[in-house]
């Protein structure tokens, strides 16, 4: 099922023009890539906000209709208002359906309810929540599932342990030395181990703060002595 977004050509540029658009409940946007000149367009605020409630929109090839001319794009960047949950600008990247694209895809961890170790109180530690992949636009997945149902206490899954969809490649594993880039994605750990790690980190922070305080006292004492 294709996802369509309607847009219109935008002639005005600059902060003032963008401010007027937002005041009229419209969003300034830009389309670039595929060897073509960038195009400035305008989107409807309410339609785009509603569309972005579906997380698949962020990782789908979209049909962007500009004055009845449709071209495939992906959302490359979103800007939001720092205080309000409002979209202020959208960057679209044109897609050549015959050429591979590189983008980030979220990981969905499944099987937690079926994991025996977690039913006994183990904790799931997620090191990575999204990975960069390369594939043809037609093969672009909305998410990549990582099954942790059979993961035992102390075991982990790394990048090479993920079952990837056909035609989709993890870019980190294309750099030659796979072992160097094969980072852990998720692990099942004992709660005690997690607590001990947190305690060690807290102790290190307290030690650093204490050392800084002692240095400050020493500097103050030196200043009094010099006076």
Report what the structure shows.
The protein is α+β, with helices and mostly antiparallel strands and 227 residues long. The protein folds into 2 domains: 92 residues, Ribosomal Protein L25, Chain P, CATH 2.40.240.10; 89 residues, Ribosomal protein L25, C-terminal domain (RNA Polymerase Alpha Subunit, Chain A, domain 2, Beta Complex). Helices cover 26% and strands 37% of the residues. It has 5 helices and 13 strands. The strands form 3 sheets. A 6-stranded mixed beta barrel has the order 1-3-2-6-5-4. It is elongated, with a radius of gyration of 25 Å. It starts with a strand and ends with a helix. The model has no long low-confidence stretch (mean pLDDT 84).
Number of strand elements: 13
Low-confidence stretches: none
The pLDDT mean sits at 84
Query: Spatial order of the strands in the main sheet?
Result: 1-3-2-6-5-4
Order of helices and strands: EHEEHEEEEHEEEEEHEH
